[in-house]
Every structure is written in C-alpha cells, then in structure tokens.
Design goal:
Number of strands: 3
Distance between the termini: 30 Å
Oligomer: single chain
Structural class: mainly alpha
Strand content: 5-15%
CATH superfamily of the largest domain: Winged helix-like DNA-binding domain superfamily/Winged helix DNA-binding domain
Order of helices and strands: HHEHHEEHHH
Strand order of the largest sheet: 1-3-2
Helix content: 55-70%
CATH architecture of the largest domain: Orthogonal Bundle
Shape: globular
CATH topology of the largest domain: Arc Repressor Mutant, subunit A
CATH class of the largest domain: Mainly Alpha
Radius of gyration: 21 Å
Amino acid sequence: MAKLDLDDYLPYLLNRAGARIADAFGKVTRQHGISLQMWRVLAALHHLDGQSVGNLAAHTSIDVSTLSRLLDQMQGKRLLLRRRDGKDQRSVTIHRTATAQTITERLIPIALSYEAKALSGLGAREAKTLKAMLRQLYDNLDSLDEVTPPAKKNRAAGAARSRLKA
C-alpha cells in the first residue's frame, strides 16, 4: 500500500493554508455584513463589472446553482443588480451597486494585507513564481474528472477477469 504523509501532501497543504486565511478573512467580511463567498463575487465584479453568471461562476469557483442562490441573497442586500443584455434578452449581466463598491473598497486593503502576511518571507520573484505555479496547478486540474482512482481501476480489472473466466 502506498504511504501518504499529510505534511508533504500537496492537496492537504493547499487546503490547510487556504482554510487558515479564509477563516481569518471570513471574520472580517462578516463584520461588513457579507460572507466570504459574497466577497469573492464582489472582488470579481470589482475586477470586471457586468459579468455573466457563467463567467462569475468560473472566476469565483462557485458552482452555478450555489452562485445563483448567493446572487439572490446579494440582490436582497442591495449589493448587486441584474441587467438584461440589450442584444440578447435571455442573457443577464451582474453589476455591483454603490453599496457593494463601498464595502469592496474597504475590504481590498485588508485583503491585500492578508496576502502580504501569507507571502512574508518570500521575495517578489518567489511570490510571482508561486502565483504562476498555483494558476498552472489549477489549470492542470481541469482534467481531474478523467482520472480513475486506483481502487476503481483494480475493481474494474477484477470484474473484467471474472467475466473472462465465466
């Protein structure tokens, strides 16, 4: 059996670091009346206002059905507006409100300070390399659904052998 050392296992290390910063920053976002997921939407809209739900889902890594419910909550809090595209009435774009902009502008310096704390001890080149590597890692995972877990491979092979014997 293969040995797994959590302290040297990349998914564990990524989750551990991400969970720590998310927990800490989540406390800050809640003080401003929003959840961490709402912050991700506001940050994405700050980067590019007027995105489609599909683009927001991809940009924030929130699945579309969860995002749709989240957008309803945010609209109820007067943080965003949905607008129909003039060219395609079926298409809706999401826009931040002045309230959302104010909250986002208050949180950006705090978010950047958390990032700086996370990157402390790394030089500018190392931080840039780390971010590039994380983007590459994320892109690599697009094909994750194509990977068959070893246990399933072994069961499938065993089932195929059983059929051959019959």
